[in-house]
Records
---
Amino acid sequence: GENVEQHPSTLSVQEGDSAVIKCTYSDSASNYFPWYKQELGKGPQLIIDIRSNVGEKKDQRIAVTLNKTAKHFSLHITETQPEDSAVYFCAARLAWGGSEKLVFGKGTKLTVNP
Amino acid sequence: DAGITQSPRYKITETGRQVTLMCHQTWSHSYMFWYRQDLGHGLRLIYYSAAADITDKGEVPDGYVVSRSKTENFPLTLESATRSQTSVYFCASRRGTSGAKTYEQYFGPGTRLTVT
């Protein structure tokens, strides 16, 4: 089955610096890769996603890149702010014969120090 | 627009009791999902439903039962709760398979369940 590895598990940066979180997936049939932000006590919130036919997508300070050949994708946050502090999860969607699932990485706790 | 809600938000129960966690969405999304979140495991899919009366197992279905008689509701039942089911449970939903943004899943606020 699909396996998603996420690194690093914790990341601490200074306000204004960039942060990069990387994920690798195992199943080449995966076709959709979302990133979620989870604040303490809340549900995961989708912040950006990318489909397998696109190499890069950007939305203001966040961007996601996908390398299908290497089976890895990354989240880039520029000009980080204290409110970016949260746990970030990557995921890969796998679909087969009418079934589907999102497999999540184990998360990265990002701390942005003022 | 209420979106997706879960109830209760917190629940403490004893081993062996039956517990039902509720999930309700107001978007008329076709798909609904149940995940559990545990330290060191991230989010794992328990069950999902593609439409009313259609359900399928996820990664960790043992000990759980789901039903979906109405599109907007997707209850999760622990038939005989065990300590290993202590977790935070999240419900999610997404649209059907046509149109833009069809793969986006939207999560509820979660239910923290403790089994003593």
---
Amino acid sequence: EADIYQTPRYLVIGTGKKITLECSQTMGHDKMYWYQQDPGMELHLIHYSYGVNSTEKGDLSSESTVSRIRTEHFPLTLESARPSHTSQYLCASSDPGGTNTEAFFGQGTRLTVV
Amino acid sequence: DAKTTQPPSMDCAEGRAANLPCNHSTISGNEYVYWYRQIHSQGPQYIIHGLKNNETNEMASLIITEDRKSSTLILPHATLRDTAVYYCIVRSPMTTDSWGKLQFGAGTQVVVTP
């Protein structure tokens, strides 16, 4: 049973607002990820983190930012939301090493900017 | 990480076995084959993974060819709840030099019909 949670599940917000999407995991995983996915399209990695105080940009450029102050928490922030940010955002985490590692995903946040 | 090729879609009758192919001709020796699925509007769910031996768990079986250039995910008795997009991913172990990020392609849309 995966213990990774995203809030809110759905968010409709006006242009120009600042928003933070929350992601928390209780598995003690060092590695965490944010993916962006438009309806019917592929998942694209936008941010990842090796551990506390570590954040890196993913393969898809994003105007969002992330922080990793605590192991269990990996929030994503948009300083000024725009309609082009409308998408589903998925958070994931995984064990730090070894070969038998799988990634656990949250249920996602579906963001609509109007 | 090596690229994978999957058919865009396939149908399967309920109760029958679903065989999902994946080509990964450029896979390297230390890369594992992972399968995930994504049910509509949810986060991806881990199914199974393997290196070169066939693997089986409560969800599915994974058959990897001897040359490791292709694999098949088998859902032994498909149910309506198995309707989802199935992703085949080739991934190196997470070591200090490789953080083992998951790169999702387009996947195969599987529709299980009554």
---
Amino acid sequence: DAGVIQSPRHEVTEMGQEVTLRCKPISGHNSLFWYRQTMMRGLELLIYFNNNVPIDDSGMPEDRFSAKMPNASFSTLKIQPSEPRDSAVYFCASSLRDQPQHFGDGTRLSIL
Amino acid sequence: RKEVEQDPGPFNVPEGATVAFNCTYSNSASQSFFWYRQDCRKEPKLLMSVYSSGNEDGRFTAQLNRASQYISLLIRDSKLSDSATYLCAVKRDTPLVFGKGTRLSVIA
């Protein structure tokens, strides 16, 4: 029973580089969420999709962040250019309608 | 005021103790409530939903107080394996909004 799958698990890169995080939601789930977690701010919602359509991206920090969901089984979160303050754990989660969300293992991102 | 607030802890309790966490939410229109558990360097995992009448799952009891806008989680007979961060989550018509979590350490 596959859960939410994220890749990569870890990413270390230099500031200014483009970073792409990937997510495969649970099959059949129609909502997908991108969160960022830091010690200071906790778990913050960045953007979410319903049926592949972005619904609310008000949590995206700035224009350097973008997210896409080209189909029901794949989403990307891109940061370009990356900055050290983007270092965090990025979680993808999915859910079916009003059911609670299930999280992937997360991507631990370090920008040097 | 933050939308969802929790005492960050840490709560350090001996094995076998009973421990309770509270979580307050600011939006009275919130509809659904959950507790998640997050182990160190892992993802949050759903622990239990919180129903209006209160609900129990083994050693865990969750309660909702709509009038005062808080939810609680009670852990009885705590085990070493209960050590984790417990996040409350609240939902209106938007995705879950999470508290920052309360850290629990159960000590032998």
---
Amino acid sequence: RKEVEQDPGPFNVPEGATVAFNCTYSNSASQSFFWYRQDCRKEPKLLMSVYSSGNEDGRFTAQLNRASQYISLLIRDSKLSDSATYLCVVNVNYGQNFVFGPGTRLSVLP
Amino acid sequence: DAGVIQSPRHEVTEMGQEVTLRCKPISGHNSLFWYRQTMMRGLELLIYFNNNVPIDDSGMPEDRFSAKMPNASFSTLKIQPSEPRDSAVYFCASSSSQWHNSPLHFGNGTRLTVT
């Protein structure tokens, strides 16, 4: 079993749709969690950290369930500019051991 | 903040040549990572340093690859001799192990083509 697994995708959704990505991790000692987005031929960029109580940033909502070792990302009112690959990242040792999921590709269609 | 700075942005070289990639982490970050990304294998961790000391180099493909971090503000990844299968985008990233929830910050990457 891979350390971090994500929905295989790709997701093709119309503009304005709500889309949810799921991620599971295997190491129960994982300490911090992140969602990154990566555009084609660009570097991964931090989208948001994921906090235990869940957190929201505009149209984006992240949830963490430590008991189930599960992380989610919800995008509401999707825009064309949201088209990218979304990477779930788990940090086992603060600031050191980051484990990336394989990513889920999203295409928002006009 | 200038962010993580990598050079060169693009490198085209012939098989057998030595290639040196450079990285300047964000000031104050004490962890530095080298990643490689290809379509086939995705994002792979090659090596990471903490406080300038290599911690995990298990991802380094073979002896042709070496990485150094002589000080807190500079790291190099060297490939000697280079081979066509080394063609990929190489990312450097930095983080701080002193803060909870400190994320990784990536440089723009070096796109390496070995012919």
